[in-house]
């Protein structure tokens, strides 16, 4: 079975695509998401083989969402778009899987047959479309937030509670479904420790300690550790 996730903010489009995919017993739809916030959480927890991803979604577009996924564990992506001719030409040129809205059953079947032959992600294509993140999707309680990278002081991870994002203003703390690895690769946040990232712009000074270790003191009064492996790179910034 090919585990499949549908991501589209339009209810009719989600249901229509689900009904058409369900005609092929090789595919198992494990969820439907209305936005990128929920989609990232579902992808990280359910690990689908394939996602059908709407490009034009509120707050975080399908293209923007690409930079928020772990490239080493990314599913096969089929874009679903109502975009015009020029966008379609670009997709075809780069061998990107896509479906044009409204999705026609015969065109979908071509895509499904292709996926049954090969569900391996096209990492090169995905990397060519990804861009540096300007905002990080976060949550606090039942609310979702988009936090500007410039407003972030640091990020850290806990074995029990996952990724935490701490802002500069009033040191507010949020949770994120993104890993430190993804944040390090796709933002200006810099690794200073196995469990910590820092916004270099918020560093007040670095206190050097014994055995090559260190401690960062931020403008906001926070402190966080520096491992030997990252000391030289941080001091050169």
Topology, element by element:
Blueprint: E1 2-7, H1 11-21, E2 27-33, H2 36-46, E3 50-54, H3 62-66, E4 76-81, H4 85-93, E5 98-100, H5 105-117, H6 123-129, E6 135-140, E7 143-148, E8 152-158, E9 162-167, E10 173-176, H7 180-186, E11 190-193, E12 196-198, E13 203-208, E14 214-218, E15 223-226, H8 228-235
Parallel strand pairs: 1-2, 1-3, 3-4, 4-5
Antiparallel strand pairs: 6-7, 8-9, 8-12, 9-10, 11-12, 13-14, 14-15
Number of continuous helical runs: 8
SSE topology string: EHEHEHEHEHHEEEEEHEEEEEH
Q: Strand share of the residues? A: 25-35%
Within the CATH hierarchy, at the fold level, what is the topology of the largest domain? Rossmann fold
What Rg, in angstroms, do the CA atoms define?
20 Å
DSSP, total strands: 15
What coarse outline follows from CA principal-axis ratios? elongated
CATH superfamily of the largest domain: Response regulator
Kindly state the percentage of residues in helix: 25-40%
- Which CATH-level-2 architecture of the largest domain? 3-Layer(aba) Sandwich
Mean pLDDT: 90
Low-confidence stretches: none
Distance between the termini: 49 Å
């Amino acid at each position: 079975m090919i585990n499949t996730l549908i991501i589209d903010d339009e209810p009719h489009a989600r249901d229509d695509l689900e009904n058409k995919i369900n005609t092929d017993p090789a595919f198992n739809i494990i969820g439907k998401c209305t936005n990128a916030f929920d989609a990232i959480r579902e992808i990280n927890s359910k690990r689908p083989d394939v996602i059908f991803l709407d490009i034009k979604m509120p707050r975080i577009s399908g293209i923007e969402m690409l930079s928020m996924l772990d490239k080493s564990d990314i599913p096969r992506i089929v874009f679903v778009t109502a975009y015009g001719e020029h966008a379609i030409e670009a997709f075809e040129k780069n061998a990107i899987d896509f479906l044009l809205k409204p999705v026609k059953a015969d065109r979908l079947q071509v895509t499904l047959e292709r996926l049954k032959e090969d569900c391996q992600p096209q990492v090169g294509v995905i990397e060519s479309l990804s861009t540096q993140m300007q905002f990080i999707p976060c949550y606090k309680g039942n609310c979702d937030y988009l936090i500007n990278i410039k407003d972030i002081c640091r990020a850290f991870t806990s074995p029990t509670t996952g990724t935490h994002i701490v802002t500069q203003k009033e040191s507010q703390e949020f949770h994120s479904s993104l890993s430190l690895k993804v944040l390090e690769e796709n933002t200006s946040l810099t690794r200073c420790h196995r469990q910590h990232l820092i916004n270099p712009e918020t560093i007040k000074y670095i206190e050097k300690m014994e055995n090559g270790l260190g401690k960062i003191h931020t403008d906001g009064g926070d402190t966080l550790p520096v491992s030997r492996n990252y000391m030289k790179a941080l001091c050169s910034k």
